[in-house]
Automatic annotation (TrEMBL), chain A:
Origin: domain of life: Bacteria
Entry keywords, A to Z: Cell membrane, Membrane, Sugar transport, Transmembrane, Transmembrane helix, Transport
One GO location term (cellular component): plasma membrane
This protein's record includes keyword Transmembrane: yes
Gene3D superfamilies on file: MetI-like (1.10.3720.10)
Protein name from the UniProt record: Multiple sugar transport system permease protein
Subcellular location: Cell membrane
Any GO BP annotation: transmembrane transport
Family: Belongs to the binding-protein-dependent transport system permease family.
Chain ranges passing through the membrane: 12-33, 74-98, 110-131, 143-164, 185-207, 245-266
Topology relative to the membrane: Multi-pass membrane protein
Residues of the ABC transmembrane type-1 domain: 75-266
TrEMBL record, chain B:
InterPro entries found in the cross-reference section: ABC_transporter_permease (IPR051393), MetI-like (IPR000515), MetI-like_sf (IPR035906)
Entries under Gene3D superfamilies matching the protein: MetI-like
GO biological process, one term: transmembrane transport
GO CC terms, sorted: plasma membrane
Membrane topology annotation: Multi-pass membrane protein
Species annotation: Sphingomonas kaistensis
Annotated protein name in UniProt: Multiple sugar transport system permease protein
Amino acid sequence: MAADAVAARTRLPLPAAIALGIGAAIMLAPLLWTLALSFKENAALVGNSGAALTPPWTLENYGAILGNGQTLRWLFNSLIVSAGTTLGVLILTSLAGYGFARLEFRGRRALFLFVLMGLAIPGQAVILSQHQLFAWANLHNSYPGLILPGLTTSFGVFFMTQYMRAIPRELDEAALLDGASHWRIFTRIILPLTVPAQSTLAVFTFLGSWNDYWWPLISVTRSEMYTLTVGLAAAQMNYAQTSGLGFLMAQAVFASLPIFIVYLIFQKQIIAAMAGTALK
Amino acid sequence: MSRNRAARRDPGFAFVGPFLLIYCAVLIAPMLHGMWLSLHVVDIWGDGRFAGLANYGRLLADPTFGQSLVNTFAVTLMVVPILTGIALALALALNRASRGAAVLRGIFFSSAVLSVTIVTLIWRFILAPDAGLLGEAAQAIGAEPIPFLSSPDLALWALAITTIWWSIGLPMLLFLAGLQQVPADLYEAAALDRASRWRTLLSITLPSLKRTTILVVMLQTAAQLQLFGQAQLLTAGGPSGASRTVVLFMNEVAFGRWELGYAQAAAEVLFAIILVVTLTQYWLTGRAGEGEGGR
């Protein structure tokens, strides 16, 4: 806040303002270009993508997506996988967070360290053996196969534990003396207090899962189980430079819409979360 | 009392158990299995044959792996300093309460929510020399288009530019968060001393952002060392391997040639490199913390 006040008093120097304007244009131009292309008839774009900037525009490409069962199926798969991963992460990490933050049991510290160890393991280092183990368990081309790897979030456990530790002890000690079970304290007292942390974790998990590329790429071989990311990549590989450009861009816009909506709704949450937790 | 304690001990396992179970099955077991795998010659169907360190020896002698390692380091060195610098500048410029600043923050974060497939789809089209956006722009001013995707010298820059455009949002947010935590009294003292803006930036703001900067650099380094999607979708690792990254190498070896043990050895090398980076981060942030008087 203080930094805000200091910064707000002084206006941005003109060169900095101009640089910002150019930067913003560089950020936006590709997105607007994509949008413009998505509204053009494919034939008009052959060899002349400049045509995107002038009318006529058409909704034909979007109509083609709705008429194409594959894209809708991929959207559905992405929704199932991202929602499933998010729900799973929230349940597992808040349970674990409660255990680590508010209960005493043998080996608690050691187990917590064991979980933190996971922070140092990059996904790329284990993905090949995950692929092999999932093949043995016959989990490829299935929703559980797509969801399970996303559930092992050490960061999520760490995040929920820190958040629950900060909740005053007095709140649940009284309930404990009254003979309330831990389950009751967890669901009635602690969980309602962690809604901000839950939604932060939910946004990041959903975004991460929605945009995940390598795991669904190698785990799924049947096109009806593709997520949007992988489905579009396959469409992109097949695309010949000269045809179907407008349709491809329309698919990109269509695939980005759900995530933009999530982003617009949770914008404030995302920024507050970064400010509040990332650096403590 | 002791019975009561025992009763309070048990639920702990019930709460942490479900996560631990999945954690062990899906992360720890594959990690250990991966180490085993890297010591074997394995294809997807067979059980594998113990080969000791042969896979690692083969990696050392494999020019394709060497090239991918060099490419990965190069793209990391291209992306991380530029990304950190731009993100810091953006955060300094946009750390104000005005509506315009809020809109600009949104614009600079917007690309971060796109998936790699869509980012590369857009940029492949922009960078394509004949029909792309840059090509058209170059034609309009009568210049030769730059062959970003087909020149071995420029392919890595194509990856770097795309990656910077895509991932500027998160480090910017981290720096904005860091700025929020600079103690207000420091600025008040500087204002009392009539310190210039420049002086305040150099003596107060930048030193206060040391921890954030280290965090951003390390997170980005770890992320860029694992660069995959852009290389696969934008340039397919080409031309002639000029933009093949380590993870793309792993993908090709594992799922193109089904040499899982060999690919996993490459994964372990990458793991070791990232581990060193991460440990350096802990060491550096620990020291940065000491320097700030216990904060």
